[in-house]
Amino acid sequence: MGQDELNDALITIQKEGGLNEKWLENCVAALKQQPENTPWYIKAMLGISAWLTMIFIILFLVSSQLVRSASAALIFGIIMIPLACLMYKKSAHQFQKQFSLAISLTGQTLFYIAITSINFFSENTNTKITISATFAIIISIILIKIYEDKIHRFISTIIIIGAMTVIVSRLNIPVLFNVLPLFIGILVVSFSSYEQRLLQLSNSDMLRPLQYGLLFSLMFILLPATSLFTKEILQNSHFFLSTIGIGLSLLYLEYTIVKKIGYTLFSNVSLFIYSSTIIFIMSTLQAPGITASFLVILLGFSSGDKIIQGTGISFLVWYTSNYYYFMNISLLDKSLSLITTGIILLIIRYIIRFCTRNKNV
Q1: Digit-coded pLDDT (tens) for 37-50
Q2: How distant, in Å, are the alpha carbons of 207, 230, 324, 334, 336 from that of 329?
Q3: 54 within some domain
Q4: Which of 112, 146, 171 is the C-terminal boundary of a domain?
C-alpha cells in the first residue's frame, strides 16, 4: 500500500469518527516524512546495472595495465575500500549504494591478492596466505561496523568465517576445524536467545545480517563437496566433534524454546525432546551437516523467519545428496542405507504424531 492509499484510508477513518483532526494531521505528516519505497524489481535492475558497471571498470583497470603488479593492486585496494565507505555514506540512491558495494568488494579482492603475492611480510606462500586471511578478518570486522549495509555485512560475515577456515587449513590443525562449527553454533543460538535484548541496542541493525552470514557459513563449511580445505584436513578431521558441538547448540536452543513455552527442565515433554535429540545426534555423528540443518530449521521456526526455514530445509536436501554421493560404499549398500533411513524416518514420524496426540506425554 502506497502513501496516497494510506492517506485516503486515514481520511476515511477520520470521517467515520475514528480519528480526530490532530491525530489525522500527525499521521499524514509522519507519512510524508517516510521515504517512498522503491519496488523490488527496480532495486534489482539498479543492482545489476551497478555490478555491470563495476565489471567494466575492472576490465578497464586490467586492460590499461594499471593493476599489473602486486604493489599497484595493493594501492588500489587501500584507496577503493575507504572510498566505497565514503560513497555509501553520501549515497542517496540505490544505484550508488550498489556501486559502492561493488567497489568495496573489488578493493578488498585486490588488497588480499596483493598481500598474498607481495614478499613484504614473508616469502613463504602459506605464511602470506595466513597473513592475508588475518587482514581479511580485521578489515571485515571494521567494515561491519562502519559500512551500514545489510548485504555488505552479510558478505563480510562470510568473509570472516572463510578466512578462519583458511587459517585453520594453513596451520594444519584439524581439531580447530571441528571447533569452528561449535563457535558458530554458539553465536547463532546466542543471537536467537537474546534477540529482544540485542534489538534494543544501538547497533541492532547488525543482528539479522550477522545471523544470516553465520548460518550460511556454517552450512557451507560442512558440505562434503567443499574444496576450501586441504585433503589432509578433511582426512584427519574428526567430524563427530563437529556434530557434538552443533548438537550442544541444538540442545541449548531447545532448552530456551521449551522454557519460553512454559515447560520445566525435567517435564515429560522436555525429557522426551532432549532424549530424542541426543539419540539423533549419536546416529548422525559422521554427518554434522544433518544436525546443522535441523539447528537452522529450528531457529527459523522459533523466530518465525521463513528465509531461515527455507534455507535449512534446502541445505538438508543438499547436504544429504552430497553425503550420499561421496559415501565410499557400493551402490547396493547406498540403496540399503536409503531404505533403512526412510523406514526410520517413517517410524519417527509415527512416534511424534502419537506423542502429540497423547496428553499424558
Answers
A1: 556 566 556 656 66
A2: 43, 22, 10, 7, 11
A3: yes
A4: 171
